[in-house]
Amino acid sequence: MLSRCLDNNKSREVPLHESAVEALASYAGHRDRCVPRPKSPTFFVSGKGTPVIYTDFGFTFRALVSASGVGAGSPVVPRIHDLRHSFAVHTLVRWHQAGEDVGALLPRLSTYMGHLTPGYTYWYLSAAPELLALAAARLEKAKGPRA
């Protein structure tokens, strides 16, 4: 299913799995019961009906990560943007493994992530060993056998 999304005055359509559509519909029903007259037209609102503040969201995310034990014992605490990084890297790894034209598909990933150009997406693709190995193997294959 495609969902229309407005963010920072940008509009885009993103594909959503049916389970995501169901979860968002459930949230919307709960939100509408708890905050019948929100002060903001944004989809996600606080208990007061105002837009969710990023720092509050970050605090809640860190609390959930801690309570779930994700990253326990790791020297680096997982951050919300790590999910975007993982999504971008895993998408490119799948494309490489499937033999897709990654360069041609990168604008699609950028659009999905809400970026204006692929240049903004490169930030999320930093030195992932598996991705670098796949890209290097593809480059070697393209160069052909060595003499």
Outline of this structure?
With 147 residues, the protein is mainly alpha-helical.
Mean pLDDT, to the nearest integer, reads 84
Uncertain residue ranges: none
**How many beta-strand elements?**
2
Q: Biggest sheet: strands side by side, in what order?
A: 1-2
The count of helical stretches stands at 6
Estimate the strand proportion: 5-15%
Question: Structural class, please?
Answer: mainly alpha
Tally of distinct domains: 2
Radius of gyration: 19 Å
The proportion of residues forming helix, as a percent range, comes to 55-70%
Cα separation of the termini:
51 Å
Element order: H for helix, E for strand: EEHHHHHH
What is the 3D shape?
elongated
Give a short account of the largest sheet: 2 strands, antiparallel
Fold and architecture overview:
There is one protein chain. This protein has 147 residues and is mainly alpha-helical. The chain folds into 2 domains: 2-52, no CATH class; 80-143, no CATH class. Helix content is 55%, strand content 8%. It has helices at 18-34, 54-68, 80-97, 102-113, 118-121, 129-143; strands at residues 2-7, 10-15. A hairpin with a 2-residue loop joins strand 1 (2-7) and strand 2 (10-15). The N and C termini lie far apart (51 Å). The mean pLDDT is 84.
